[in-house]
Amino acid sequence: MSVLTVNLKHLYQRRGLWLFYVIVVLFAFAAIAVLFEDTKAGQGRFIGLIVLAFVVGLLLAVLPLEVMSKPFSYCLPGHRKVPRRFIFWVGVLVNLFGSLLFLTYPDLHSGQLFLVVCSAFFAGMIFFWLGVGFAFILRNPGAWIGFLPLVILGGCFFGLHRVLERAIVGIPFGVILVGILSSIVAWLWLGDEGRARRYCAVPWIGFFDAWNRDKLQRYRRVRAPIKWDKLKQHPSPWVETFFLGRMNRHDYVSTGRYIWGGLYTMFGIALSQWKATCSSVFLVALAIVCFLGYMGPWTINILFVMPGLMIAQMRLPVYSSMLISGGRKERYRCAMTLVITTALLITVLLTIIAVLSVLLATIMPDITLRGNTFIFQPMNIKLFFVPLLMIPIVFTVQLIFYRKPMSMVLLIMLVFVISFVTSMFLYEHLSSGINPMFIIGGLVLCWGTFLLVSRYVCMRRCLVGQGRTY
Amino acid sequence: MNNEKPIVQMRKVCKLFGNIKALDNIDLQIQPNRIVGLLGANGAGKSTLLRNIIGLYLQDEGECITFGSEAKKLGPKELGRIGYVHQEGDLLDWMTVKQLIRYVSTYYPSWNRQMEEKYVEDFAISTKARVGSLSPGQRQRLAILLAIGFEPELLILDEPAAALDPVARAQFLDLLLQIIQTENRTIIISSHILSDVEKVIDHAVIMKEGHILLDSSFDELRERFSRVRISALGKELPPELPFENVVHCKRSDGQAILTVKDCPREKLQEQAKSLDCWIEIETLPLEDIYKIVVS
Q1: Picking from A110-114, A333-337, B47-51, which range would have the lowest pLDDT averaged per residue?
Q2: Theoretical Cys-Cys bridge with B164: which of A68, B34, B71, B168, CB 3.0 to 4.6 Å?
Q3: Which run of H or of E encompasses B61?
Q4: How far is the alpha carbon of B195 from chain A, nearest alpha carbon, in Å?
Q5: Does residue A325 belong to the interface with chain B, where contact is any CB pair within 8 Å?
Q6: What are the strands, taking DSSP E only, across B2-60?
Q7: Number of domain units in chain A
Q8: CB–CB of B228/B211 below 8 Å?
Q9: Are the beta carbons of B290 and B206 closer than 8 angstroms?
Q10: Domain range for residue A299?
Q11: ipTM score
């Protein structure tokens, strides 16, 4: 078996990547399809495959990173050089194909056409190497990939696709020169033995490694000291004194002791950094309000749903192998209290932000951009109850899919997307149809489901997994 | 036979994970004041059994009673008497060691501060360090400290020494020997490192594929299995040796080493006499006993 065949397994054995391959193929298809619709010059319709080279580079960087990070394969002959050659040739092939689209570019004579195709090829190579570089720098590119659609949409909004197409056609020599230089730099950069040594045995998270629990654990373990060192003196002594004091007010067998203990473990660190927490929450919320406020009445109200996504990271003390003297009943009551507290805190916080947005609406100016006028829309305070619906749903999903974190995240994302789409299409109907009965019905349904599921989990399910850690 | 009420009683306990039977008709009684070694290969069902005892797992069939209460209904009263060390278990990573100790100690009225201080010093754990940044060995030492700090009546140690280096392992065994000296304490320890367990246990439970193959006092076990060295006094040994229940036999140049099971010493000596040869009987180490039982 050749060195290449052995290492290709990194690309085909990771099941999650197959989904991504499908998305890349669909994207490529869409990039070609837009040309059948119209081949007008200067509209940015030709650069779809050029931009796609970035994603391909991001994907293919999996190969050298995997080889370099494994001491065993790193030391085998040829394993450091073959992946470099492989990704280089794939980059060449992908961009050859992408640049051929420019053969249909209108109003160019054959000499010009050849130059433009070369220019497109090297523009693709620049994007390709950028993708490879990003994968190396980010170490966890999967976590950032969600921003890619935003960057593409943002780029389209500001007409960057047209700028890029014009650059390829208008300044081919410049693009070719930059492309050649970037390819040489990338070739040398990937072959640098010093770099290879730095990556050897260094854990990293590749695309769709989120399914690989062992790898994630190793990664977290290595990163843990850096992460915890950032906490410095937190949690502060006053937080500890406060919570332990509350716990001590209750009897040793009383549930109150466990509830206060749960509150300490869940909110202790945030409370200790309350100034930083509050200011960052308000600043981020304000920035989002200012941005989404101009995006239309339904968009800003997405803020009511967003905390649902954020709390997916919070861990209820239901599944824990750290045995304290609390039994299943105590775990259940503690979880209930924590979810209610979280829901109330977030609802109050969002209501304050909604009120602020109403106040902001009086001072925010109308913005005119590219002939479009954007008017700031405040949050609809009538929707204050939405977090109270979302939070029990998110925690229900978390309790059911606790041992499958990726499925949990995907399901929560699905809930988020459904709410997003529903609010987009039915916002007017929904906002006019909100009445106390609707709110009460929703609350009963969501909280009832959460109560039933959490009781079932706490009383009847295994509270630690079969794995070593949970 | 011990007439005291057992601390743990398992009757016909079955536990399934999908199609895999992790525990299959387990009947087990743990008497108080015993040091029980739970031995078995990976996947034998040791951790599952331990987790059933404290109610972290619930059996699909059968009954599991701990401290007189159904395992699934264990509350603060009963769990306050149980210390548990999970292999590479959860701890609150964001706390400092000191904070975590203070937090856990708040749940136990019997927390022993002197003992805590002593072990913090012995284990060389920095109380200012962040739990999340401890090495696996230090983490395990901290987990052990948290499990013994309140002097539990039942201490469950699930592969406690797996993450420890040899020095820390030796320290841990010393600690275990100290704990054992305290009266009214029952310890269940599961481990792969049989040579370590051998020094401390007085009862052994050997598991394989969800079954208990052997449940016996360690002294009885050592009496049941012996290694016999036979040397012919100046002549050849006969081709057929007249010993019963031979599990394993190795011969070379007028010598034979036999592993025998359920054969009393007196009988072995009598048989050796009839052969007119020199005989040496020694007890088997736990590792060899384990190999015989599971094979």
Answers
A1: A110-114
A2: B168
A3: strand B61-66
A4: 23
A5: yes
A6: 8-17, 20-30, 35-40
A7: 2
A8: no
A9: yes
A10: 273-460
A11: 0.86
Give dist(CA A366, CA B187) in Å, integer.
73
- Which of B75, B84, B95 is the closest to A323 by Cβ? B84
Chain B residues in contact with A324 (beta carbon < 8 A) = 79, 104, 107
Return the CA Rg of chain A: 27
pLDDT digits (tens, 9 = 90+) for A97-115: 888 888 888 877 878 888 8
**Residues A441 and A294 occupy one common structural domain:** yes
Enter the CATH code of domain B224-294: 3.30.70
A309: Cα separation from own chain's centroid: 11
pLDDT (0 to 100) of residue B55: 92
DSSP secondary structure string for all residues of A292-361: HTTS-HHHHGGGGTHHHHHGGG---TTS--S--S--HHHHHHHHHHHHHHHHHHHHHHHHHHHHHHHHHH
Interface test with B, best of A269, A325, A329 (most B CBs within 10 A): A325
Token readout for A150 is: 């935003």
Instruction: Find the range with the poorest average confidence among A330-339, A459-468, B82-91.
Output: A459-468
Calculate the alpha carbon distances from B17 to A152, A326, A456, B156, B266 in Å: 45, 25, 18, 22, 48
Three-state DSSP class for residue A113: helix
Which of B19, B47, B86 should one mutate to test binding to chain A, selecting the residue with the greatest count of A CBs within 10 A?
B86
CB atoms A224 and B57 under 8 Å: no
Where in the sequence of chain B do the CATH 3.30.70 domains occur? 224-294
In the DSSP assignment, the letter for residue A370 is T
Domain with CATH 3.40.50.300 in chain B: 8-209
Asked whether the beta carbons of residue A328 and residue B79 sit closer than 8 angstroms, the reply is no
**Residues A142 and A47 placed together within one structural domain of the fold:** yes
Three-class SS of residue B105? helix
Half-sphere exposure of B268 (CA within 13 A, CB side): 24
Cross-chain Cβ contact A228/B133 below 8 Å: yes
Homologous superfamily (CATH) of B8-209 is: P-loop containing nucleotide triphosphate hydrolases (3.40.50.300)
CA dihedral angle for residue B205, residue B60, residue A458, residue B50, rounded to 10 degrees: 0
Task: Choose one of A166, A198, A213: the last residue of a domain.
Answer: A213
Size of interface A-B (CB pairs under 8 A): 118
Determine, for residues A252 and B51 on separate chains, whether the beta-carbon distance falls below 8 Å: no
Q: Which of residues 109-148 of A touch B (CB under 8 A)?
A: none
Whether A60 contacts A66, CB under 8 Å:
no
**Contact status, residue B64 vs residue B53, Cβ threshold 8 Å:** yes
A219 within some domain? no
Question: Greater confidence, A76 or A261?
Answer: A261
Question: What's the rounded mean pLDDT across residues B240-249?
Answer: 76
Q: Per the CB < 8 Å rule, is A323 touching B93?
A: no
Q: Which DSSP symbol is given to A209?
A: G
A469 pLDDT higher than 60 = no
pLDDT at position A461 over 60 = yes
**Would you call B55 an interface residue with chain A, using a CB distance cutoff of 8 Å?**
yes
A129-150 average pLDDT score:
76
CB-count burial class (<10 Å; 0-12, 13-18, 19+) for B227: middle
Interfacial A residues in 96-115 facing B (CB < 8 Å): none
